Amino acid sequence: MTGSLNARYLTKSRFKLAVECPTKLFYTGKSEYRNTSNEDEFLAMLADGGFQVGELAKLMYPSGVEIKAKKVEDAIAQTAELLNQESVTLFEPAIVYEGLLVRVDVLVKRRNVFEVIEVKAKSYSGNVSDMVGVRGGIKSTYLPYLQDVAFQKYVVKNAFPGTTVTAHLLMPDKTKTAGLNGLNQCFKVRRNGRQTEVLVEERAKRAEVAESVLTCVSVDHLAEEILNRDLSYPGGSGTFADVTKQWAPAYAADKKIDPVLTSHCQDCEFKAPLGDAMRSGFHECWRQKLNWTDADFQEGTVLDIWNLKGKDKLLDQGIYKLKQVQADDLKVTEHAQGEITSAQRQWMQVDGLPEESRSRGFYLDNDGLAHEMRDWKYPIHFIDFETAAAALPFHSGRRPYEQVGFQFSHHVLNGDGTLIHANQFLFDTPGDFPNYDFVRALREALRHDEGTVTRWSHHENTILEAIKAQLIEESDPPSDRTVLISFIDSITTGGERAMVDLAKVAKQRYFHPSTKGSNSIKKVLPSVLSHSVYLRETYKNPIYGAVGGIASLNFQDMTWWSQDSNGKVIDPYELLITQLDGLDEDVIKAESINQGGAASYAYLKLQYEDLTDRERESLRRGLLRYCELDTLAMAFIVQAWTKG
Fold first, then answer.
1. Cα-based torsion angle of the residue sequence 586, 587, 590, 594 in order, rounded to the nearest 10 degrees
2. Is the peptide bond between 379 and the residue preceding it cis, with omega within 30 degrees of 0?
3. What is the pLDDT of residues 178-221, one digit of tens each?
4. CB–CB of 555/544 below 8 Å?
């Protein structure tokens, strides 16, 4: 088991990349290419608890030896020397076979038997059969993890012929409860440049602490299934041995594998905007296959069509541009004024707005909206939650990845048209479980009238239902448990004051070409600002947070409607970034992980990183402004729809 000096190995992460698209092997690791996954690696690890789970897993193997060599060849040599022992447990050993390299999270050797253990910050249900769908196939949510550990088993088995190699996943188990109070505070993350260190408290350095929330489950039968069947990837399929023998030499020689254009291209991380200083692998692939210029891309591609499941079928037919798509391709029915179907929304992206809407530049079903709003009661309440799912529980008796509601914002629109930022809540004390205080504060904010409560999408409903389940299961419930559950029932789906989903209203009643079909609030907000006379005339002046103006808890004399040098209305979320002194560059990048990612990341940073008082307060200010803008955006959208 030896490696070649300066060799380019196909590692498990590069293997995973090749399964997504073999051509990506040519772009990865090259600084001249945009790579959004590299930019967000630390954020993703912090968001899903990867740093903490990795350190916690090591505690289950007290005799484990970590391979700390920085250079790959040194790590390979150190691993080989330690594996001369009859029995040994290694963390991050380096093992090579014919151009393939794996760094196994945990490798347990007992004479002629190897256990390959992959540590994943992925919630486990406690039942391995849940990784398999009702029709017998491996679920897509687990497939990448299982392919990962199967690749490691393949390399170890071939590097040590004649041995028995078994595959395992070690994951946080949602059926288990923590036995240690403040477990999530026992693993602090410290960064020094590109280096990350996890500081573990002494009280947590026990195997039973790790075993209280983690489970090592054998997935060898599923790994064998993967190794013994053809592996599918964009543009082809083949046996595990065949594809690795194709991909490893191509990567070693820095040879580009011919691209195949599929719907997977829409999620390519090697994509830079046209004209960007960095190279764009996505655009190079499409240029190579289609001889396109920038002008061709600017016409739009079928990848841009919102929520279309038939993109591969169109691409197979040679339909690449939006203008090539026909109504029959989308199964569009004739659209009269009224609710927009998914197919009609897609067709508007291709063919433009209906004739009667083209003069005003957007589609709005005014009659349908009026019908929708006839049951609304003033004052209208706009609420938005910021939440996180911590891998390690806050207290003993709590489970991994329980939802945590740490923040909300609340705007109120009165019947006379006045708007105020009425309430906010932010609970960020490290190690404290905020959920019940969160619901109490929300109840207090909403209990003074019977006005309609609105949300954007299903997130708020989901979080409240999760907190209700926590209240029901609580072994030491708060004295007001019944009151809190009754409140949750009243505003969630089916309740007498059930929240109105404005995202659903937008999906059914509103379309603007700039949104590209999306119903994300961060797409809809700039679109309504671009055409609403009311928003322009009201918010072009610094009245938000001004004395005698619109009451705000976090802003002062703010102007929300402004234009850039080209006359384009500036997105308020871009304006916000210029004011978020607490949300550093990493937090801004977190937006690419998921909606609300910046807030979730900032909360986890407050929980897990060693921060100065000044840094903590700066983050708090940023979080409060961010969440306030979310509910203000909802109010802006309703004002634009109703006032023009």
1. 170
2. yes
3. 988 888 888 887 777 667 788 888 998 999 999 999 999 999 99
4. yes
